[in-house]
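ESCALATION

Customer reports they have been waiting on this structure for their group meeting. Please prioritize. Original submission:
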Amino acid sequence: MIYSVCVNNKDGKILEMDYQNYYNAFRELILIADKISGTGLISDFESRQKWALDLFFQLRNRSKTILSLLPEDGAIESKTYDLSAIACLTRSLGEIYEAFYYFGIDRIEEPEAMLRFLLMKIHQESELEEIQKKFRYEEFDIKLIKESIRSLRDEAKRRYSELSSLEGYEIYDLINQGKDKFRKTLKHNKGRCLDRKTINRRIFERIHENQEIPGVGKIDLDKLEKIFEAMDTYLSNHIHVSPLAVSESAYEVMIGDKSKHFYKLLIRHNSFFLGSAIFDIAEMQNNPRISDNSKELVAESVIGYLRDLLS
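Update from on-call: job pushed to the front of the queue and completed.
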């Protein structure tokens, strides 16, 4: 796989980079994403690939917004010191990649992808129904939404019946749950038949296949899962303005240092997802127009981050 490319120095050790280099590398990743976004027409792809491309554009745009909030050009001070906003956007970028993988990259056939799309559509309409009720919409509008949900679920059941006899489709058994339990399960999983932990596990397993990391060896999937769960908790603390978030923000504003730990960590976390998506799209398009130097940079953003987390 293309992931096997790594950046080494002449002594065979993975290069370590300071904040400014990570900032520059993140900016270069966005330029690479811009470049491959323009290869191929969306109309040339199957529906699930179109979804992947739409979500890839969102990943690129979210990355650009994050970059705009980061300190640049070697400045010690942040432009805004809005750590909470950067954390929120970082969490959002990770969730976009999960959806990107779930709908467009996971190894499933088109009929199964359509079933996943239907379940997401049901979830979306159910959320809309709840919003309309709370905003006291007219009964007629709410009735239309209910009819749409009923029609979509009937279609999902029909498609599920065509697949359920095959191995591996038990994950869609929630379709046969009672109405309330079905909607509660779907809401908990954000419209997906797999929970977040399972999706992340599949993402790591895909990278893990025949992949060893210099200085680490085979990827420890269990350890990696826990680290990414810890990152989610860390980001949530900043999003919801916990005492941890307040103290870290105060440190950046009042003291600060050249290491920029918060910024550097979030750049690397974002670069992992954007780099993974670049490789995914490159494989999908089969003619990615990525230079060897770019491949090394993207691989370092993915493998290098995992190496340092697991070291």
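Sent to customer with the following note: Confidence is low (pLDDT under 50) at residues 1-16, 41-45.
Escalation resolved.
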